[in-house]
Amino acid sequence: MQHGEAARRIVEASWRAIARAGIRKFRVTDVASDAGVSVGLVYYHFTDRNGLLQATMDHANRMTAIAGGIPDQDGRRSDGCGFDRLAELLLADMSGTPTMRDNAVVWQELMGEALFEAGIRDEVNATLVDWQENVRSTIADGQADGSIRSDVDAETAARVLTALVDGLLSRITIGSLSWDAAGLALRSAMDGLLRPA
After folding, report:
1. d(CA 67, CA 78)
2. pLDDT score at 93
3. Beta-carbon neighbour count of residue 166 at 10 Å?
4. Which residues contact 158 (CB under 8 A, 6 or more apart)?
5. Other Cβ atoms closer than 10 A to 22
6. Where's the DNA-binding part (predicted)?
7. CA 133, 139, 144 angle in degrees (round to 5)?
8. 95 vs 194, residue with greater confidence
9. How far is it, in rounded angstroms, from Cα 101 to Cα 103?
10. In sequence order, what DSSP letters do the residues of the chain get, joined into one string?
11. What does residue 142 show for φ and ψ, rounded to 5 degrees?
12. Is residue 82 within 8 Å of residue 145, measured between CB atoms?
């Protein structure tokens, strides 16, 4: 097994462990067993538990990015107006697939862990800032192409919409809101906040 392959299996096992049982029951030994590697190899690749959690967060972010059409590293975006790209971006987490449900659980758990663990707090905050900036720039693109109201403050709208997605996902993961209802609520909020009259 190559080192890159081992690291990938470890991160995927970590993601599964958090999705199944949460952070409170997260054990590096369980991750190693699921990945088919030694505990020593986990620490070789990720130094410590927080390093593994950060890599797991990166994995969860990549999964959402793929689903949501987030711009690649060259800044290229999919075709379509800014409003449509924003809807695609924000609704990526609301697809309702088992994988996206598990991804939402992982994200909720990592955000909760960041409340108490300074070792991953900066990484979580940096990811949230990046996501919010991505939403802000997509709103600005929509304002430039006329699909989003020009009088909307893009930064404030991005803050509101990303917080709304986080809140909706937290309700979905505990079963108090369906995927469809959450998607409709988000679309309604986007229409009311951003659509030109």
Report:
1. 12
2. 79
3. 16
4. 132, 133, 135, 136, 139
5. 15
6. 27-46
7. 125
8. 194
9. 5
10. --HHHHHHHHHHHHHHHHHHHTTTT--HHHHHHHHTS-HHHHHHHHSSHHHHHHHHHHHHHHHHHHHHT---TT----SS-HHHHHHHHHHGGGS--HHHHHHHHHHHHHHHHHHH-HHHHHHHHHHHHHHHHHHHHHHHHHHHHTSS-TTS-HHHHHHHHHHHHHHHHHHHHTTSS-HHHHHHHHHHHHHHHHS--
11. -65, -35
12. yes
> What's the average model confidence in pLDDT over 111-122?
90
Identify the structural domains of the chain with CATH numbers, from first to last. Answer: 1-47 (1.10.10.60), 50-194 (1.10.357.10)
Residue linked to tokens 């809807």:
87
Between 16-30, 57-71, 98-112, the lowest mean confidence (pLDDT) is in 57-71
